[in-house]
Amino acid sequence: MAERPNILIFNPDSYRGDVLGHLGNAGACTPNIDALVAEGGVSYANAFAQNPVCTPSRCSFMTGWYPHVQGHRSMKNMLKEHEPNLFSVLRREGYHVWWGGKNDLFAVTSKEDYLKHCDTKHTPHPARGKQILDGIPADAPRRKVFYQGILDGEGEDWPHLGRDGGMVRGAVDFIAEAPTDQPFCVFLPLGNPHPAYRVERDFYDRITPERLPARLPAPQRDLPALDKLREIYESDRVSDEEWMDIRRIYYAMCAKVDDLFGRVVQALKERGLYDNTLIIFMSDHGDFAGDYALPEKTHFSLQDCLLRVPFVIKPPAGLGAESGVRNHLTELIDMCPTIYDLLGIDPDYDTQGHSLRPSLEGDQREIRDCVFAEVGARAGEEAFINRDVDSMPKDSFYALQSEASWVAHESGSYAVMCRTRDYKYVRRGYSSHHELYDLAADPGELTNLSGCQELAEVEARMAMHLLDHFMRTGDVLPHATDSRQI
What we know:
Blueprint: E1 6-10, H1 31-38, E2 42-48, H2 54-61, H3 86-92, E3 96-99, E4 120-121, E5 130-133, E6 147-154, H4 163-177, E7 184-188, E8 197-200, H5 201-206, H6 224-233, H7 240-270, E9 277-282, H8 304-307, E10 311-314, E11 324-331, H9 335-343, H10 357-360, E12 371-375, H11 397-411, E13 415-419, E14 423-428, E15 435-438, H12 456-473
Parallel strand pairs: 1-7, 1-9, 2-11, 3-4, 3-7, 6-8
Antiparallel strand pairs: 2-10, 5-6, 9-10, 12-13, 13-14, 14-15
C-alpha cells in the first residue's frame, strides 16, 4: 500500500458556523482555526448540517447519507454494525482509528462494543485540580435557559481541566507515540461548546462584549412550539444584558475549543506529521446562543444558526490545494466522499454527498444549487421520544424542553428544508405552518413569507426541489447483489 496521510477529525459539538474570526466575526477568538486556513486550509463559509440535533447529524456525516435513508432522525437510533461508515472503511484500509470523546454515533451495549468500530477508545484520567462555579440564585431567570456561569480553575495546566481537556491530552500523547508504519485517524468529538453555558474565566476574559453580534429577536409570527419553549423557559424574564452575557460565554466556549484544537495541531507539527495529515474541523450543528430569545437547539426547527456550521479542511501536502474561503453551498455529507477521494479509496457503497477535491484544488464553480435538512418526529412516533429525560429532575433544562416539545412531537413535528442562496423553504408534514424567507432581504429569518401571492412561484419551485430531493435520495442500493438462482 502506498503511504497514506494521517487524518485528524476535530469535531466540537454545537459550534455555530459564524463564530470564526477569518469569516469576519470580530467577536470570535479563533486564532488557531484561522491559522489553519492561512496555512493551506480551506474554509467552507456556507456549510450546512443535515439535521440540527447531535445523533442524526453524526450518523449522516459519518456515512455520507441523508438522515432519512436509514431512519436516523432521533437521538436513540444510532449506526448499527451492518451500516457502512467512515470508520469501517478506514479500518478495512489499514488505518488505526483512535477515538476520544462522546458517542451519539454507534449503537453500543457495553464499553467493549466501541472496539467493533475503532481500535482505541480513549478514557481520560480524572481532571486535575478543582473548578468552582460562580453561584447563581435558585430563582434566577437565567437558570432556565441553561446559564451556569464562570469557572475558576485551580491546579497546574488548568485549561485542560475537564473532559475535553482529557480527550485532547490523550490525542496529543497518541500522536507523540504513534507508530510510523500505520496511518491513523484521530477522531475528537468534544463536548464544548454544547451548553450548559459555563466556561473558565480565562476564556471568558478573552471575549470583548462590545464586539459580539447583536441577538436576533423573536419573530412575531413564529412556530407555536417555539413560543411554547419561550414560555416554559420564561425567556421574557431574561434581560438583553443577560442574554448577551450568555452569548459571551458561548463565544468563550468556542475560544476554548480553538485553544484545544491548536494543541493537537501543534502536536502534529512537533512530530513532523502536519504536512502529511488531512485535518478537518467541523461541528455537528449550531446553537441559538440567545437568538430568537432561545438557548441551545430544538428537535423541530431549522434555523440557519442551528444548521450552518464550521467546515474547514486542510488537505495533505502535495494536493496542490489553494487555501482560503469558499462560498459554495456545501453539506456535511460531503465529508466522506471527499476523504475517500483524497485517499484514493473505493468505499464499496454509494454516498450521497459530493467530493470537494476539485474545490480544494481551486475550482470555484458551484457544487449544488441548494442544501437540504430535516428534523422531528412523525405523528405518534414513540421511538422518537428520548425517554432518558423521564428520569431527570422536573426543573432541569432537558425536562423543561421535553415538556414544552411533547405536544409538537406527539402530533407530528417532522419538517424538511430546502435552502438556496436566495431563499429558504421549510415544509412541515403535520402542520400548515410552512416557512419561506427571502434571505437577501431577511438573513435572520424573521419574516415568514409562506403563502404570500407575490412569491407563490418561488414557493412552488422550492417545494418541487424537495420532491425531487426525496425521490433521488430515498434509499441506497448495496453494491453486493443477491443470487436469484439458489
